[in-house]
Amino acid sequence: MADPETQLELRQISRSFDRRRVVDELSLTLNAGEVTCLLGPSGCGKSTTLRIAAGVDQQDAGAVYVAGGCVSDATHHLPPEKRGIGLMFQDFALFPHLDVAQNVGFGLTGDKNVKAARVRRMLERVGMQKFASAYPHQLSGGEQQRVALARALAPSPKVLLMDEPFSGLDNRLRDAVRDSTLDMLREEGTAVLLVTHEPEEAMRMADQIALMRRGRIVQVGAPYNIYHAPVDRKAAEFFSDVNVISGRVDGALTNTPFGAFLTPGMENGTEVEIVIRPQHLKIDFDRAGRGPNPTQQEGSPARGVVERARFVGHNSLVEFAMDYEDVLMHVLVPGVFLPKPGTPLWLSVRRDRCFVFACPAP
Question: Which residues form the ABC transporter domain (predicted)?
């Protein structure tokens, strides 16, 4: 029996096109009042998954449940309008020949006065009541987005599916609209499945992130957990730039420019990758010219020579050629720091901020 808080469940969903598996035995659960971001690169199967949940496409195998009831499996398939699911896409899809109030009321059934009251309430919730008689072409992108949200929520859906809904907005407008949208969705208690390919958006919006790759969900978790405990190198790379040091396990240790790293549980001879984000490397100015002086937390410092440096907004990105097997390391330094090429400096790294993964099989 499904948890009463579970509003959408995908069980072992698979879908193929032209013999290519686009969604591969995918399972996912959404609870009331939570935002789940389906995150991954283009072509990984995110939008197909959303279309299957909506009912506009049908899976080849598996089942879809809404509020504990099966809406699609091998024997039956409910159409989108009978699933109690709201849809909101990046183009907003407002009807150009209907005014704002008519757009929001489209699809509502029942008493005319009740419908009109619901439309007024939803427009008030999104701050668009004074635009009730306006037409979509008279609205800005942010205003259209708010109308689309009001229309999607007007029937009180248990689940709202959103496909890159903020991608058409400029950066300044996007943050404000996105935050107000999330506040409203959580107040309504709606379970939200939102598709995005932008890690920053997923980190900002989600209660949980489902990271997709090649039709499968490879990791599910809260944003903090999925960022600080990636399942593999590719998961770490998806959220930020990384430095990678390759090595081989010898006696539960792997040698690096920063000394030996513990690699417990890995057999001797295992090829490993040690992944370090650029912001977790530190330039040790106090140690310049004095050589290494290891600490337990940072391990051995390593000498590198500046290859290039550039300012990238709030930070500077400095590339070092290390004195170790032609390893290159990128360091993110707050503010403006642009040392000349050829400058030698010492680097240290927080061991607790590094990830060690066995190399995938070829």
Answer: 8-239
Q: Which residues pair with 308 in a beta bridge?
A: 319
pLDDT single digits (tens) 277-311: 999 999 987 655 454 455 445 568 899 999 999 99
Mean pLDDT of 45-52: 94
Q: Report the relative pairing of strands 302-311 and 344-349 from DSSP bridges.
A: antiparallel
The pLDDT score that the predictor gives to residue 241 is 93
* Distance, CA of 137 to CA of 104 (rounded, Å): 15
pTM of the model: 0.85
Q: Give domain 6-237's CATH number out of 3.30.160.100, 3.40.50.2000, 3.40.50.300, 3.40.50.20.
A: 3.40.50.300
Cα angle for residues 327, 330, 331 (degrees, 5° grid): 130
Q: Which of 236, 265, 234, 233 is nearest to 249 (CA)?
A: 265
One DSSP character per residue, 291-340 reads ----BTTTBS-EEEEEEEEEE-SSEEEEEEEESSTT-EEEEEEES---PP
Contact between residue 50 and residue 163 where contact means Cβ atoms under 8 Å apart: yes
> What tokens appear for 255 in the block?
């040698």
Place of tokens 């579970």: 6
**CA distance linking residue 167 with residue 173, whole number of Å:** 11
Q: Buried b vs exposed e over 29-41: b needs ≥16 C-beta within 10 Å?
A: bbbbbbbbbbbbe
CB-count exposure of residue 358 (10 Å: 0-12, 13-18, 19+): middle
Q: Which two tokens stand for residue 27?
A: 């399972």
Fold of the 240-358 domain: OB fold (Dihydrolipoamide Acetyltransferase, E2P) (2.40.50)
Q: Which residues contact 236 (CB under 8 A, 6 or more apart)?
A: 230, 242, 275, 277, 355
What is d(CA 262, CA 256) in angstroms, rounded to the nearest whole number?
Answer: 11
Q: Would you give the distance in Å from CA 307 to the centre of its chain?
A: 33
- Reference 142, options 176, 192, 93; nearest CA is 176
